[in-house]
Amino acid sequence: MDPATEPPSRSTCTSCTFLDDFSNYWTAVMYFQARNGTFMRAKQLGSLFHEAANGGITIYYFDAPGGYNITAFQKGFRMRNGDPTVRDKESASRFKGITYTCLARPDTRYTNVTSEELWPEDESQPFLWSFGDRTGYGHHGDYIFGWKGGSLQRAFDAKCKPILNCAKLPTQEISVANTCTKNRTVAEEVDGWLDELPGGVEVLG
Question: Which InterPro entries match (predicted)?
Fold first, then answer.
């Protein structure tokens, strides 16, 4: 992925509400390891109001308090917050901008119920990230800037608070955004019961 090539020039649609946002946002997939050692991808519910998309995340852009002028990311900007190699709380504490929550009840934003006979007999924690982290401390989020032209800067200059209610940005209906998907490019099974994590990733921690 050449940083000189902007995502809008390679895309035919966007799954974002804003038509000018062709950025790439990524977080890891969670797996459940049953007592027999096999793995199953945990079902991911769509982000708020995008439930029909069967997955995804919610991204917020906020203006800075106090009326500061903000400069938008520039062409080619990429960012990773967190470190997939981290396996302890002290090291993970360096990263303040990313977190996740496992919700306990359906009325707190749904949950996934796993059959008790699949739970490890020793009652050990059976969830892990797709990059092999069982501790949860290696969780990370990746970002590739892809706002079209100067659209994000125009929103900042207009002091939209928050940007998700900005008249300066063209939008599309959520139902239309949910139809924008990308075909799988690697012929590998990621669903169903698997003998190993996709890519043959080793479980560490």
Answer: DUF1996 (IPR018535)
Per-domain residue ranges of the chain: 1-7+17-205
In three-state form (DSSP H/G/I as H, E/B as E, the rest C), the secondary structure along 41-94 is ECCCCCCCCCHHHCCCCCCCCCCCCCCCCCCCCCCCCEEEECCCCCCCHHHHCC
What is the distance between the alpha carbons of residues 130 and 30, in angstroms, rounded to a whole number? 6
Identify each DSSP E strand in 76-194 by its residue range.
78-81, 127-129, 141-144
Contact 134, 203 (CB under 8 A): yes
Beta strand spans in the chain (E): 24-27, 30-33, 39-41, 78-81, 127-129, 141-144
* pTM greater than 0.70 (yes/no): yes
Strand partners, 168: none
Please, are residues 140 and 133 in contact by the beta-carbon 8 Å criterion?
Answer: no
> Closest by alpha carbon to 27, among 98, 113, 110?
98
User: What tokens were used for 171?
Assistant: 């939008």
Residue that is written with structure tokens 């997955």 in the block: 55
Q: CB within 8 A of 189, min separation 6: which ones?
A: 198
DSSP state of 15: S
Contact between residue 147 and residue 23 where contact means Cβ atoms under 8 Å apart? yes
The pair phi, psi for residue 129, each rounded to 5°, is -85, 155
